[in-house]
Design a protein that fits this description.
Radius of gyration: 23 Å
Helix content: 40-55%
Oligomer: single chain
CATH architecture of one domain: Alpha Horseshoe
Number of strands: 12
Largest sheet: 2 strands, antiparallel
Structural class: mainly alpha
CATH topology of one domain: Serine Threonine Protein Phosphatase 5, Tetratricopeptide repeat
Length: 547
């Protein structure tokens, strides 16, 4: 049996053949020999394949998923990453993005491809009349609901709550332009879909017992995202408060399940190639792969390492988006995560194709400008590869995120004074994340100091009593420490901007760093792109080309 990653690779490879061999030459959509959504889903295997396009849309068919455009669109508006001199027309971090911006249009279309594919899967699974084990049918339906919610969550984060609303397959052209969603409509759908998914999906240990299912959404995945949606409510349903109590209940289920834990080595989360993918800390990750793309070349995690990884001057990197000085300064002295997150002074070495081992001094010397920026190590190998891309998975949610969200909920409930050893208080969960950061890291580059001694960041109580100020924020409250810890632990994992938005809508001080960059409330979301949500071919064959 193959993993979901291999299934995606196989399905997309087959799609390239089907496009050439059958779909393009034969334009008669009524051809009885031509597969369609009305004739395809007749067997258990075909039903199993029905959700693959919804997963694949997260990677992207039009460069719009996490293979390329989506990581730009999610990272650029924050205060933690800046554009470089290499791409002066990257508008995302100027808060004046034009509606015809290419990366934006690509994400818009691919995310709606995912919505359309999810809708078709929900319909076909719900009304399947063939023979199939009910537990398997429930699992597939749970995945489809989860993926629809996830795609819509991305869309609303980026474009606001009035994006077009589809909760069923488009049957004809009259349904292709539904108009803007009503206030609260998509938030309600996201919550309902994640909740349904949590009911239907099996536990990770049950599902992943079969290696073929590794990478698929699980009960814990749906519960964690349901909690995140409750916390994201100020963004997803503009003007509404976060639902901390509801989020707390879902996060406790994830924690109490025993299905997840922090891995000992922080670098095992997205950094060392593919060996540690779908590990015990992974709540959900995108299954990247090398395969045929829209141009007949490679499709994968694509160009992340080259575009936002190693700085320019170290082997031809494009280096279009990079962590800035604020990000560098956010890390406490003695925190090894700084050097596992960024290419920076005192950090890791990088090996070029010609064998040159480049330390930060070499990188710095070869930068043309923007020397206040740093490279990104997460999901980027420590050596240059001849191809522009790689297939390292994109981690969308880790257990450390769950722990920090739970700590935030407990803090909001008034438990800040609980002991650091008391699991009913927030300090307990923050400390788990900080303890892991202090552990000796085996198998890293031998010159790094933390190869030979542990990190030495203080515990939560010590930090509270330290009078320490980081980037202008005093570490004298649990809330401030949670904000800080989410910044450093989850840096570059697409969360910072949206954390600032949800906090800032309740307490405007959290928007000060964005306002200093030119942000205003009018620029909270990107403009709707000048692009059809999906191509008209998806009205008839939205999934067939991928299975």
């Amino acid at each position: 049996m193959t993993s979901l990653k291999n299934t995606l690779r196989t399905c997309v490879a087959l799609s390239a053949v089907s496009i050439v061999s059958s779909c393009v030459p034969n334009m008669d959509l009524n051809n009885p020999e031509q597969l369609s959504v009305d004739t395809y889903y007749t067997t258990e295997a075909q039903l199993e394949a029905s959700i693959i396009p919804a997963y694949e849309a997260l990677i992207g068919q039009n460069q719009g998923g996490y293979a390329r455009a989506l990581y730009y669109n999610l990272l650029a508006p924050g205060d933690d990453f800046d554009k470089t001199f290499k791409w002066p027309n990257l508008y995302q971090d100027t808060y004046s993005t034009p509606a015809n911006e290419g990366l934006l249009k690509s994400s818009w279309q691919d995310l709606f491809n995912g919505v359309f594919a999810s809708n078709i899967a929900i319909e076909k699974i719900t009304h399947f009349e063939g023979t199939i084990d009910e537990a398997q049918k429930d699992r597939l339906l749970g995945e489809a609901y989860f993926l629809r919610a996830l795609h819509y969550m991305h869309l609303v984060q980026l474009f606001g709550e009035t994006v077009p609303y589809w909760d069923h397959p488009v049957s004809d052209a009259s349904e292709y332009y539904p108009g803007n969603a009503e206030k609260g409509q998509i938030y309600a759908l996201i919550i309902a879909d994640f909740a349904k998914a949590a009911e239907l999906l099996p536990l990770r240990s049950t599902l992943y017992a079969d290696a073929a299912n590794k990478g698929r959404a699980t009960k814990g995945t749906a519960q964690a995202y349901l909690a995140k949606a409750y916390l994201y409510r100020p963004i997803l349903e503009r003007g509404q408060a976060a639902e901390f109590g509801k989020a707390e209940a879902e996060l406790k289920k994830v924690i109490d399940s025993g299905e997840y834990k922090l891995v000992d080595n922080y670098r095992e989360n997205s950094m060392w190639g593919t060996d540690y993918e779908n590990n015990i800390e992974s709540v959900f990750e995108i299954q990247m792969f090398n395969g045929p793309d829209w141009l007949g070349g490679d499709k994968s995690d694509s160009w992340r390492w080259q575009e936002i990884g190693v700085p320019d001057g170290t082997g031809g990197s494009w280096w279009n988006l990079a962590p800035n000085q604020r990000t560098y300064d956010e890390f406490e002295e003695g925190d090894p995560r700084k050097f596992m997150t960024m290419w920076c002074p005192g950090g890791a070495y990088y090996t070029q194709l010609d064998g040159t081992v480049a330390d930060w001094d070499y990188m710095y010397a070869h930068l043309s400008s923007d020397k206040h920026l740093y490279g990104t190590r997460k999901e980027c190998p420590d050596y240059q590869i001849a191809d522009a891309d790689n297939e390292i998975n994109t981690r969308l949610m880790r257990y450390s995120d769950v722990l920090l969200m739970y700590a935030e909920c407990l803090s909001e409930a008034g438990n800040d004074n609980k002991s650091i050893t008391d699991p009913t208080g927030p300090k307990y969960y923050i400390q788990q994340v900080r303890d892991r950061a202090n552990k000796i890291v085996p198998s890293e580059q031998p010159h790094l100091w933390y190869q030979h001694e542990p990190g030495y960041i203080p515990n939560v109580d010590e930090l509270l009593a330290s009078d320490k100020v980081i980037n202008g924020v005093p570490m004298n409250t649990i809330k401030n420490i949670i904000v800080h810890e989410r910044f450093v632990e989850l840096c570059g994992e697409y969360l910072r901007y949206f954390d600032l938005l949800r906090w800032g809508l309740a307490d405007s001080k959290w928007l000060d760093s964005l306002k200093a960059l030119g942000w205003s409330e009018k620029a909270m979301y990107y403009p709707f792109p000048e692009e059809e949500p999906v191509s008209y071919t998806h009205l008839t064959l939205p999934t067939i080309l991928l299975v």
